[in-house]
Amino acid sequence: MTETALTPDRILDAAEQALTRFGLAKATVVDVARALGVSHGSVYRHFPSKAALRDAVTERWLARVSGPLGKIAAEDVPAPQRLRRWFDELIAIKRRKVLAEPELFATYRAIVADSREVVLAHVEALSAQVAAIVADGVRRGEFVAVDPGATGRAIFYATARFHDPSHAAEWSDPAVDQAFEDVWALIARGLAPSSGRPAQAKPRRA
Fold first, then answer.
1. What are the tens digits of pLDDT across the range 134-163?
2. Nearest CA to 7 among 45, 40, 55?
3. d(Cα 82, Cα 72) in Å, to the nearest integer?
4. Has this prediction a pTM greater than 0.90?
């Protein structure tokens, strides 16, 4: 490959292949450069360090999660339906990555562990998408009046067992889907407008 044909995306493609083949500990910038047929100095002109290249790979991988979810968050459908579909898709994406590509997922988990700032930005972006759906639901009268930002973060973290990779070993448990339904029922009841909530028992008079 000529220097003029070398682009950040092509470098990232080669980096992903190197990581898949050699793993995080053994993959080097030289491996990436060799796969592209260029010098490692050429790679460094686009990414100043191995850490910068690793973070860029992580960002692109995480964008494959946040991208489809962002489209759901922007849909013009009732907020309760949209919020549930957003979480269903998030869980489905994570499960596909874990169950269909376990070796690649293990590599990416290692990368993510070394890219804390990138991951925190990703989590904030996802929480913001949830907050946007909540805010729209409040505006439409489909959700009770709440602080969208705080509520979005709370819902995201309350459901972490079902989408956070640190809980991946639990996802093959046959009971995990029902556990999610139980958690979701609580979330749905908490967000429902007053008219949609079950009546509270009145205290007995003495």
1. 999 999 999 999 999 999 999 999 999 999
2. 45
3. 7
4. no
